[in-house]
Amino acid sequence: MSPRPARLAPHQLCVGWPDSPSDDNSAEVARRFALNVRAEMGGRSIREFARDTGLDRATITGIVNGGTWADLQSIARLELVVGKTLWPSFAGRAKQGSFER
Q: Residue 31: CB partners within 8 Å, gap ≥ 6?
């Protein structure tokens, strides 16, 4: 079995992470998710937000800094704890270039 090819981190596919949109559809979804997570953090530190959500600091840091692709368990945990959808809708992005929260 050959090894799985390495994937670039979301921030590597988005010049100006997280302030500038990415031309890469997957990185753009990750960027929008990271922005939604940051918005939910409010004034809390990563340490406080990690404690409040039950995720570790490395996971939260990786998501908001674009260093890692959020996994389904982390996405579900964050959405359940904050009580709202954080994952952006694809809403035809590949064709129209728009997202919804």
A: 10, 14, 17, 18, 21, 22, 66
pTM over 0.90? The answer is no
- Class of residue 38 by CB neighbours under 10 A (exposed 0-12, middle 13-18, buried 19+): middle
79 vs 61: CA distance, rounded Å: 17
**What is the tens place of the pLDDT at every residue in 43-88?**
999 999 999 999 999 999 999 999 999 999 999 999 999 999 999 9
Collapse the DSSP code of 89 into the 3-class scheme (helix H, G, I; strand E, B; otherwise coil) and give the result. Answer: strand
Full set of structural domains in the chain with CATH: 24-87 (1.10.260.40)
